[in-house]
Structures are given as structure tokens and as C-alpha cells.
Amino acid sequence: MKLTIIGCAGSFPGPDSSASCYLLQHDGTSILLDLGNGSLGSLARHIDPFEVSAVALSHLHIDHCADVASLYVGRKWQPDGPLPPIPVAGPEGVGDRMANIYGLPLDVGMKEQFDFIDYDHAPVEFGPFMITPFLVNHCVVSYGLRVEAGGRTLVFSGDTGACQNLIDNSVGADLALYEASYLSRRENPPDMHLTGKEAAELANAAGVKRLILTHLVAWYDSEEVLAEAMGLFSGDVELAKPGMVVEI
Length: 248
Ligand SMILES: [Zn+2]
Ligand SMILES: [Zn+2]
Prior knowledge:
Elements: E1 2-7, E2 21-26, E3 29-33, H1 39-43, E4 54-56, H2 62-65, H3 68-76, E5 86-90, H4 94-101, E6 114-118, E7 124-126, E8 129-135, E9 143-149, E10 152-156, H5 164-170, E11 175-179, H6 196-206, E12 210-214, H7 222-230, E13 236-239, E14 245-247
The structure holds zinc ion (ZN) (2 copies).
């Protein structure tokens, strides 16, 4: 399974990165985890965005889903006619949420461009990828995503504060792609995001060998986030960067 970091900025696009978006490829199939604001353009540096065959959203905050609306425009208004729908999976109500983003009537919405799937905690299969959504600890309904393909496993935290469910669903993963939005030295809102320290502690508790920190917010120094985790994490840890490719 090949992971390409498309966007790793947290909460809003930063000067060096779009918001949340990760391209996963295996056996000729390309899917996305999240499609946050600004990410569709960055994606086009790595793949024709219209070759992506499915999208799995962690949750419905703008920095994780806004560019579904951009993909909608691109698929609908192709010069040779609209492209067939692809699946877009997300929390309950994802189809209505996307319609609202674009000001579309709910009865039509984006249903001709996307087959929306509401998570019900069962795995979702996109070609060779099996994605198991699990609830995490955020200010809205938010999922972590455990992705398995070709015998390898990636766990993406989505947006979350510390929670046991993230540990439980990360056990045995080859790579943890965890958010690290906050700095420990600051007073942070509870049940919202992780610090670099917390990300390291959770990945240690799950026995994960490799950790990539993402959802890096532009107003903090990411190197400080990384330094918190490096002192604690027992395996390899690094910061996500746009364009970074990881063979899992
Ligand atoms: Zn976010
Ligand atoms: Zn969020």
C-alpha cells in the first residue's frame, strides 16, 4: 500500500500545505482519506483527480471535506459530459452535508456524482482496501479509519483527543498516521485534538512501530510538535509533509 501525503495542515490550509487529504494506492486502485480545503489542486500534482475511485471522510469539518464540492464540480462539468458516480463514505448525513456546502437542494444534492455511504461501524470495501471506521473523541461525530490492503495496515486518527478507541483500533498497525495539533506547554481545549506527546503515548500503547504526525496547525512550530513525540515514541516518528510518499 502506497501513501502519499497530499495535505497535512490542521484546521485550515497553511502556507505550505492544503488541509487534510491522503492518497492511498494499491493494486491499481487509488482512494482518498479526506478531501479538505485546497487539497484537490495539490492532489493533481500526483494523480488525475478524476481517476480516484472512492473517498472516505473522517468527519465533516471543512478542513476534511470541503473539496468534495470541488470534485463534484469537476466530475459534473467535464467537457465530454458528467463522469459516473464514485462512492464517498462519511459520518451519517454526509450526502446532505455536501449538498449544503454547495447550496444544493437536498433531494438532488450531489447524488448524480457521488454514491454517499453513511458509516455504520461496519467495514467499507473499496477494491482492495478495507476501511473500518471507529468513533474517536472530537467536538463533532468523528471517525478514525483503519485501512487494510495487501496484508498491511494504516490507522488514520482523523481529529481526536486522547481516547482508548484509537489505541484499540491501532493494535497491530504498520503505520499510525495520527494528528498532533497541539503543544503540551499550552492550555488546550479538552476532547478536541492531540499533542505530539499524546500521539506518541497512544501509538506506544497500541504497539505501533512507525508514527507520522499530521494535522499540523500553521500557528505552531511543527518541529516543537515533533520534538515532544521523539522523546517518547519507541519507534520511528516523523512529520507529515506534502508530497511525502510512504510505502507501507
Ligand atoms: Zn481538522
Ligand atoms: Zn475536526
